[in-house]
Amino acid sequence: MVIAEAMRRGEIPHGDLELKTALIVGAVIQAIDSRILTRLKGPLANSAGPAADLCVRMLGGTTD
């Protein structure tokens, strides 16, 4: 729903919703796995903002 709404609002380009969702879910799971394996240091919440910006960029959007 979040990705579909972002496409509707023009925040990211329109495209295959299922593929975009799969890419974001994969990125989030990878970040969680990296934290578990201690590749990411500190609380995962510390990476939330940068991770969200990178996800938007991965889908072709821009961040402020």
Give me the secondary-structure topology.
Blueprint: H1 2-8, H2 17-36, H3 48-58
Task: Give the strand tally.
Answer: 0
Stretches where pLDDT is under 50 for at least 5 consecutive residues are none
Tally the helices: what do you get? 3
The N- and C-terminal alpha carbons lie at a distance of 22 Å
Shape: elongated
What share of residues is helical?
A: 55-70%
Portion in strands: under 5%
Mean pLDDT: 95
Task: Provide structural commentary.
The structure is a single chain. 59% of the residues lie in helices and 0% in strands. The chain has 64 residues and is mainly alpha-helical. The longest helix is centred in the middle third of the chain and has 20 residues, at 17-36. It is elongated. The model has no long low-confidence stretch (mean pLDDT 95).
Short précis:
With 64 residues, the chain is mainly α.
Structural features:
64 residues; mainly alpha
